[in-house]
Design goal:
It is a single chain. With 245 residues, the protein is α/β, with parallel strands linked by helices. The chain has a single domain, classed as TIM Barrel (Alpha-Beta Barrel), CATH 3.20.20.390. The protein has ten helices and eight strands. Strands 1-2-3-4-5-6-7-8 form an eight-stranded parallel barrel, surrounded by eight helices. The protein starts with a helix and ends with a helix. It binds SN-glycerol-1-phosphate. GO terms for molecular function: imidazoleglycerol-phosphate synthase activity; magnesium ion binding; phosphoglycerol geranylgeranyltransferase activity. Its cofactor is Mg(2+). This is Geranylgeranylglyceryl phosphate synthase.
Length: 245
């Protein structure tokens, strides 16, 4: 089964949690250790990526994960260096509200031939940066959607669906003080049938549940994994929050 089908099939049963690892933050061995604990805690897949990515570190981490864990390894590229042959799929994403065409279609064109040669699955995804937007908002020259303007996010979701994208990712920025508001998530969910991922600033089971209850199909967390001493317990808390939503 390809990764997009795996996500769709899993969603028929429950809302999903994905664990984001930055290959720059730990050794491949440590990444495997964290991923195994996350899987034991109930995470549905591992995402790999960061705002700055070294291709060699990414390859080593993706390969080690593939050899040791049973859930899909999905690339979440911050730039053209975020590509590895060892992953199961890549979120082939366009930063929809960037003011710089490089992040909308430029990096995509530069990376596409390499991805095609590698033969990994591509999942077309619209990426929308919402206030505060964090590092990715700055690096991606985004004009972040104001927190209090759910209709603007909904308009992008409809546009993404019309452009054939399979997923919309609402991003508040890694480590954001506030995650995307439930009102915005609900407005996006109501406006379109596109698969909805929400990430950035989600730290507790309660917050993950709030995001899922508002309409997110998939909740992503990254920073909490880096900050916790017990990954298994923290991921269980997040997964329980999502599944009871
Ligand atoms: C970042 O949305 C992800 O791209 C995850 O954010 O690190 O705040 O969990 P956090």
């Amino acid at each position: 089964m390809n990764v997009e089908d795996y996500l769709k099939e899993s969603l028929k049963d429950h809302k999903l949690h994905l664990t984001l690892l930055d290959p720059e933050e730990q050794s491949p061995e440590k990444a495997v250790e964290i991923a195994l604990e996350a899987v034991a805690g109930g995470t549905d897949a591992i995402m790999l990526g960061g705002s700055t990515t070294n291709s060699n570190e990414l390859d080593a981490t993706a390969k080690a994960l593939k050899e040791n864990i049973d859930v899909p390894v999905i690339l979440f590229p911050g730039n053209i260096t975020g590509v590895s042959r060892y992953a199961d799929a890549i979120l082939f994403m366009s930063l929809l509200n960037s003011t710089n065409p490089y992040w909308i279609t430029g990096a995509q064109a530069l990376g596409a031939p390499t991805i095609k040669k590698m033969g990994i699955e591509t999942i077309p995804m619209g990426y929308l940066v919402v206030e505060p937007g964090g590092t990715v908002g700055w690096v991606g020259d985004a004009k972040p959607v104001p927190r209090g303007k759910p209709d603007l996010a909904a308009a992008y979701a409809i546009a993404a669906e019309f452009m054939g994208m399979k997923i919309l990712y609402l991003e508040a920025g890694s480590g954001a003080e506030y995650h995307v508001s439930p009102e915005m998530i609900a407005a996006v969910k109501k406006s379109s049938d596109i698969m909805l991922i929400v990430g950035g600033g989600i730290r507790s089971g309660e917050e993950a549940g709030e995001v899922a209850a508002a309409g997110a199909d998939i909740v992503v967390t990254g920073t909490v994994v880096e900050d916790t001493s017990n990954v298994h317990e923290k991921i269980s808390e997040l997964v329980n929050g999502i599944r009871s939503a």
